[in-house]
């Protein structure tokens, strides 16, 4: 399997996650907890089976070696844990978005995250806010306006598109926060970082899950879809993405990453009969083009948290 095909496949898999989340009869918190738990177990078992942890040095050894040379190790560990907590909120809000609006609306509003990164990076990362970034933000805002004001007719009477898009935008804020937090984490591979982040998300949510006592899987259908979301939509695409990173240029990955939202819109249309108006299509294209051109000079990070759901 070529590196490019691995990335394309992983992006297409991530684009289909909304189809399965919509068919899981559980609240978003419980769904995210199960996704994080199943994916953590899958990735850890894979790591030990393939001896990838021992070959690239274990997470524990990496942190220990850093503590010998650096004084700010504890701060970085706290940041890594904070990014895991942020990832949990990111997923929860995105899954809530799927419940209230169409997959295309949820995905396109979620892809507003690079715009938030552009807006926050001058303050947090001290990056220059260029003219091209200004036009990227303006274009994305116009695209969002077109989507909000031109909702098509959908087959579900339970949709609340404005509420769903707001959840998608809130998820994008947390997505952007994960991206910015990861900028401060050095010395760990993308695999190690993601295992810690996803495991942290599961651990942090565990007390909430116990307190809510609402983890009741209603039937075999929900159980199968939960396993698919945890393994097929999380564990497997992350592994594909990791193995392809070293063989592709950053710009190539940036371009291919837009298969994710495009495939999400196509899946929603084909399987759920979700339609978009002409103005919504224009708005979606504005958001995608704006986020692409606004961040095209940035190097793509090794962490899949910055390129996927």
UniProtKB/TrEMBL annotation:
Name recorded for this polypeptide: DMT family transporter
Transmembrane segments: 7-26, 32-49, 77-96, 108-125, 132-149, 161-181, 193-211, 223-241, 253-272, 278-295
Alphabetized InterPro entries for the sequence: EamA_dom (IPR000620), EmrE-like (IPR037185)
UniProt keyword list: Membrane, Transmembrane, Transmembrane helix
Residue span, EamA domain: 2-148, 163-293
Family according to the record: Belongs to the EamA transporter family.
Taxonomic source organism: Clostridium tanneri
Superkingdom of the organism of origin: Bacteria
UniProt-listed SUPFAM superfamilies: Multidrug resistance efflux transporter EmrE
Xref: Pfam families: EamA
